[in-house]
Amino acid sequence: ISNIATCTAPVNIAVIKYWGKRNEELILPINSSLSVTLHQDQLKTTTTIATSRSFQEDRIWLNGKEEDINHPRLQSCLREIRRLARKRRSDGDPGLDSTGLSHKVHICSVNNFPTAAGLASSAAGFACLVHTLARVFGIEAELSAIARQGSGSACRSMYGGFVQWIMGHQDDGKDSLAQQVEPETHWPELRILVLVASAERKPIGSTSGMHTSVETSCLLKHRAEAVVPVRMDGMIEAVQRKDFPAFAELTMKDSNQFHATCLDTYPPIFYLNNVSHQIINLVHQYNNYYGETRVAYTFDAGPNAVIFTLQEHVSEFIQVVRHFFPPETNDGQFIKGLPVNCAP
Ligand code: DP6
């Protein structure tokens, strides 16, 4: 072994959704997005990478099982990191010996959450891969543009706290980067709960789903051009002011519009199920009862809800959820990893 590094990267939850690419190879989006990165100890990927002169080829193991290293997105990340390493070397930085550059890598990556929990594992996975590769090759550079080429949402997991992915306008994607809006210490009362409406795998993955949406949905075009730019400004302001009702309302509206674009896709894509709809109703009735927005939901490309609320409302809301979804009817598996704290 000539070099070895282990890093972790957390999952992020988008509150303004990314859905649709303008360049599928470079993974350039049609709109900016914004997410909350979870705390490092919660839902995360851990990756160890070793390089050695004796390794014959690059290899990768995911959750203990060897996978195909020739996956195009994996190859993009490896290629970009090696390109940076070579550049650093030719710029005269002695940090890396020249033989190290030709060494093959062995990559070992594990998630501490079941993939069946329906949470985007690709975001944490590619963020972690790129960060660990950079460590092994001694690179200190802006890495979100490389993580983006693994999976779009992965670029946001390169930073903690509240992170925006600025869509950028250049054809080469150099200005399509993630940027921290506020650090993880900014809003310590904010909490996330995951409600598992189904542990089954989603029928249509994000990549192919958004491809069909771009091709067929005029609602998606309207959303990207006219709705998201305004919402991004509103969301950044709500986060900066720690205005929970404004944050919550934008989060729910954006989730709902994302799922509306899925319905507007032809043929339509259904990610939500009956339980998801019941959760949406429950949240609105709960907020209505108090006459203020105390809880928000958001759903990605699957039926499981991510709930945002403030610490002071967590225990009561959990009781309400348990009342309507009794643990004995869902093996106690309904509420997962509770409560997830976004702060360190
Ligand atoms: C609904 O990042 O998984 O979670 O770029 O094709 O890998 P690819 O897609 P991916 O899409 C995530 C979509 C989403 C919304 C979001 O995270 O912003």
Question: What descriptive keywords fit this protein?
Answer:
344 residues, 9 helices, globular, binds ligand DP6
Give a nutshell description of this structure.
With 344 residues, this protein is an alpha+beta fold. The chain is built from nine helices and 15 strands.
Order of helices and strands: EEEEEEEEHHEHHEEEHHHHEEHE
Strand order of the largest sheet: 1-6-9-7-8
Spell out which ligands are present.
ligand DP6
Q: Tell me the structural class.
A: alpha+beta
Mean pLDDT, to the nearest integer, reads: 91
Round the Cα radius of gyration to an integer and report it. 20 Å
Can you tell me the overall shape? globular
Biggest sheet descriptor? 5 strands, mixed
Helix proportion of residues, in percent? 25-40%
Give the amount of beta strand, in percent: 15-25%
List segments where confidence is low: pLDDT < 50 over at least 5 consecutive residues: none
Let me know the number of strands: 15
Spatial separation of the terminal alpha carbons: 33 Å
Continuous helix count: 9
